[in-house]
Design goal:
Order of helices and strands of chain A: HH
Distance between the termini of chain A: 98 Å
Structural class of chain B: alpha+beta
CATH architecture of the largest domain in chain B: 3-Layer(aba) Sandwich
Helix content of chain B: 25-40%
Number of helices of chain A: 2
Oligomer: heterodimer
Radius of gyration of chain A: 35 Å
Distance between the termini of chain B: 123 Å
Strand content of chain B: 15-25%
Largest sheet of chain B: 5 strands, mixed
Number of helices of chain B: 17
CATH topology of the largest domain in chain B: Beta-lactamase
Radius of gyration of chain B: 35 Å
Number of strands of chain B: 19
Structural class of chain A: mainly alpha
CATH superfamily of the largest domain in chain B: DD-peptidase/beta-lactamase superfamily
CATH class of the largest domain in chain B: Alpha Beta
Strand content of chain A: under 5%
Number of domains of chain A: 1
Largest sheet of chain A: none
Number of strands of chain A: 0
Number of domains of chain B: 2
Shape of chain B: elongated
Chain lengths: 90, 563
């Protein structure tokens, strides 16, 4: 009789452990799924920010900023070249 | 009641319980075994959700790895009309955030139907704001789908070459169309297990998908930018200029470094009429720039030398038709190099007559006229070079100064690249790759002589002659200009329809760059290449120097930089 009770308790314990671990596993799976989706969203945010940075360094934007700073990059009257050696080139 | 009665009652109770258990087990077997598939599918449809995430389209880079166009995250916003609440607030929200007119917003929100697209390709930040505000205001029924949209970090740079992508993510024009299958990827498919509150419990990747393959072009963003600025300036400042293009090519490889077209295309609202690189898709009569190629053919046949004298009288008669110089100007005896510098039509007629119909036509064919160059652009046309058996003496005469033949800008630049590189016609390319020689069109010696003549054409060394705006000091520019009226069906050549251009290369002795600029007008009879294309060529070279793409090839007389 005692053996039967002990066996029953052991089985019940194992079942409890199984259910408990299963529940933890489900929680972890859900957590993982949420993180994967969040990561995906962060990747999208990153790409949107990369675009903002690229736009800020586009030639048009840089030229406008240079003009605003008084650098006047394409005024030929004020632009002269350094003298290079014979047969210079690139 | 005896012991036997209790046993009977217990037996009945057990029997009833047993029967009940059997019914329950039977029902379980029916639901879980016999009808397993059906109920499993029902459960799956309630709990699981398959989400298809569109693939990111391939990025297009320039030759230096600068991105010209790539995908950025966006939202496609739709409305489930059956779930909609607070429509009046939603109308306000759409007007405020998407810039819709009130009528447009009302039309979408109050539309009879289950599903309505509100907007597609909404900016990521805007989509986030709409979602947050809709939540805050208690507006229900809006659906947000993750998507991508093409973004142009350099603005509309090279848009006529790149083309655009439609709302379905497929290329509609340009490189986007030609390499659509390569740029488009495979969408990713993910299965989500959801709870009753829509919370995600698990996720499986059913199809990993793949992003599109990136593409690298031969274009150089800096030169492209300079050319586009210059074409935009030209169209704004040259009276009557309707459209133009500028092309920069490396004559040693056939790589197109810049291909700018104007008017510019607005990437937000691309005009289909402007979304084609007309330097490849449309033809024009090249005018006097063609003289350089006719002369090259004659030199290759040893029929012409630069210092030979010709009679530049005008007009002359060819097959009973009078052929004149520009502005009806007549010249006396002059050397060939001066005939090129002054662009004397009647001298080039004599040169072509020496060459004859068969050889002239053969050279033009070898130079690639009348056939597609094979550049990686959709819609390239072959130009018009009529069959040799239909050429008359008059056709020969007018072809010598670039009339009666129709060419594309790409063809003309490719032919000039052959002249510049010593006589090898290369396939022009916009995608990097090994050099592809098509054929030899002239000897290196003939090309060298012609290059020297074209340097003389730009700078004859006459101190009393104003310096050509294309002759930027230190860059040893050579080239030829051309201005020609445009022929219209049924009207012939029309005086206020003009094509004006210049084909140039530098440095003249060992060319590294070919620059071709053309403008067209339909409104100005006084439209000359010297006032339009020539300054533009100069400004493009100057711009390349300013951005340190190229440095002067010889000592300059200008003092050091003063800022």
């Amino acid at each position: 009789m005692a053996l039967a009770i002990a066996a029953g308790a052991a089985v019940a314990g194992l079942v409890f452990l199984y259910l408990w671990q299963g529940s933890v596993l489900s929680q972890l799976r859900a957590e993982r799924a949420r993180k994967v989706l969040a990561l995906q969203e962060l990747e999208r945010v990153k790409l949107a920010l990369v675009y903002d940075v690229d736009r800020a360094y586009a030639l048009d934007t840089v030229a406008a900023r240079a003009r605003a700073l008084g650098m006047v990059p394409f005024d030929e009257k004020r632009t002269h070249y350094h003298i290079v050696g014979e047969g210079g080139g690139r | 009641m005896g012991k036997g009665g209790a046993v009977n009652r217990a037996a009945v109770a057990f029997l009833l319980l047993g029967v009940g258990a059997l019914v329950v087990v039977g029902r379980l077997v029916q639901l879980q075994v016999v009808e397993h598939r059906r109920w499993s599918a029902v459960a799956q449809s309630i709990q699981e959700d398959v989400v298809e995430i569109p693939s990111q389209r391939g990025t297009i880079y320039d030759r230096n790895g600068v991105p010209l166009v790539y995908d950025v995250p966006a939202y496609d916003v739709a409305l489930d009309n059956s779930l909609l609440t607070k429509p009046e607030l939603l109308v306000d929200l759409l007007v405020r955030e998407l810039g819709m007119t009130r009528t447009e917003a009302v039309g979408k929100v109050y539309r009879q139907g289950y599903f309505t697209w509100i907007a597609r390709g909404v900016d990521y930040a805007v989509g986030q704001r709409i979602r947050a505000q809709a939540q805050g205001l208690g507006i229900r029924g809006l659906l947000f789908f993750d998507s991508w949209k093409r973004a142009y970090p350099q603005g509309p740079l090279a848009l006529a070459v790149l083309g655009v992508v439609g709302v379905d993510g497929h290329g509609l024009a340009g490189i986007e169309l030609l390499f659509d299958s390569q740029l488009a990827g495979r969408p990713r498919r993910v299965r989500l297990l959801r709870g009753p509150g829509n919370q995600v419990y698990d996720l499986w990747e059913e199809e990993p998908g793949a992003p599109g393959t990136p593409l690298h072009l031969t274009l150089d963003t800096r030169i492209q930018w300079i050319c586009e600025k210059e074409i935009a300036r030209g169209l704004a400042e040259y009276v009557g200029a309707d459209r133009g293009f500028a092309l920069v090519m490396d004559p040693r490889t056939g790589e197109v470094l810049a291909l700018a077209h104007g008017p510019a295309v607005d990437p937000a609202r691309p005009d289909p009429a402007l979304l084609h690189p007309w330097s490849a898709t449309h033809v024009f009569e090249p005018g006097s720039t063609f003289k350089a190629l006719i002369a090259l053919a004659a030199m290759d046949q040893d029929l012409l030398s630069p210092d030979e004298f010709f009679d530049g009288a005008s007009p002359i008669r060819v097959s009973g038709v009078s052929v004149s110089n520009a502005k009806k100007k007549s010249y006396g005896l002059l050397r060939f190099r001066w005939a090129m510098a002054e662009s004397v039509n009647t001298v080039l007629v004599q040169v072509a007559q020496r060459l004859g119909i068969a050889k002239t036509h053969a050279y033009l064919t070898r130079m690639g006229f009348g056939e597609r160059t094979g550049i990686e652009l959709p819609g390239e046309v072959a130009g018009i070079l009529r069959p040799v058996d239909r050429w008359t003496e008059l056709d020969l005469a007018i072809a010598s100064f670039g009339q009666g033949v129709a060419v594309t800008g790409i063809q003309l630049a490719t032919a000039f690249a052959a002249l510049a590189n010593g006589g090898t016609l290369l396939r022009p390319r916009i995608l990097p790759g090994p050099v592809e020689a098509v054929r030899t069109v002239a000897s290196p010696e003939a090309c060298a002589t012609m290059r020297e003549v074209l340097r003389f054409t730009v700078n004859p060394g006459d101190p009393y002659r104003p310096r050509s705006p294309a002759d930027i000091e230190g860059f040893l520019v050579a080239g030829k200009t051309g201005t020609g009226e445009i022929a219209l069906p049924g009207r012939g050549y029309v005086s206020d329809h003009v094509t004006a251009g210049m084909a140039a290369f530098f440095p003249w002795d060992k060319p590294e760059y070919v620059v071709l600029v053309y403008y067209q007008t339909t409104r100005n009879p006084d439209f000359w290449s010297g006032w339009t294309a020539v300054p533009s060529v100069g400004k493009i070279i100057q711009g390349m120097a300013n951005l340190a793409v190229v440095r002067p090839y010889t000592r300059t007389t200008t003092p050091g930089r003063s800022g």
